[in-house]
């Protein structure tokens, strides 16, 4: 996603959403992120830990976030073990960015 980095406002709102959905301690994802990769670097260890130690919780989380199930299956089936956590993190972030952008779009539409 480097060529299509969301703006800082989208990243900030995405970080807040991810913090809530992952049930991270307050403030863990509140600093300003310069780009997508800096946000990913902060979320990746959490996903890696869940993948290694709490896989069922991770699957439930991915279901609640509503990530693309076909992509998830491909990652889990064909992904290289060293890249699975990063690929799942991308799925989560892309989905949350999509939600944030959709909310922003509908907030801007005039009523009536």
Helices, strands, pairings?
Elements: H1 8-21, H2 36-53, H3 55-65, H4 69-78, H5 84-108
Helix pairs in contact: 1-5, 2-5, 4-5
Structure write-up:
The chain is mostly helical. It has one domain (2-108). Helix content is 70%, strand content 0%. It has 5 helices and no strands. It has helices at 8-21, 36-53, 55-65, 69-78, 84-108. Helix 2 (36-53) packs across helix 5 and helix 4 (69-78) runs antiparallel to helix 5 (84-108). The longest helix is centred in the last third of the chain and has 25 residues, at 84-108. The mean pLDDT is 89.
How much beta, percentage-wise? under 5%
Report low-confidence residues grouped into runs of 5 or more: none
* Largest beta-sheet characterization: none
Molecular shape: globular
Query: What's the helix count?
Result: 5
- Structural class, by secondary structure, is mainly alpha
Rg, alpha carbons = 14 Å
Distance between the termini: 36 Å
How many β-strand stretches? 0
Helicity level: 55-70%
Mean pLDDT: 89
Q: How many domains would you count in the coordinates?
A: 1
Order of helices and strands: HHHHH
Which key features would you list for this structure?
5 helices, globular, 112 residues, single chain, mainly alpha
Describe this structure in a few short sentences.
With 112 residues, the chain is an all-alpha fold.
């Amino acid at each position: 996603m480097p060529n299509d980095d969301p703006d800082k406002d989208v990243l900030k709102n995405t970080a807040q959403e991810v913090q809530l959905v992952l049930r991270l301690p307050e403030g863990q994802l509140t600093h300003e992120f310069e780009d997508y990769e800096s946000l990913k670097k902060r979320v990746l260890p959490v996903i890696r830990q869940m993948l290694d130690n709490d896989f069922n919780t991770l699957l439930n989380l991915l279901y609640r976030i509503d990530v693309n199930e076909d992509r998830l299956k491909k990652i889990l089936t064909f992904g290289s073990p060293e890249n699975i956590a990063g690929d799942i993190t991308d799925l989560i972030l892309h989905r949350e960015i999509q939600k944030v952008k959709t909310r922003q779009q509908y907030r801007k539409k005039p009523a009536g």
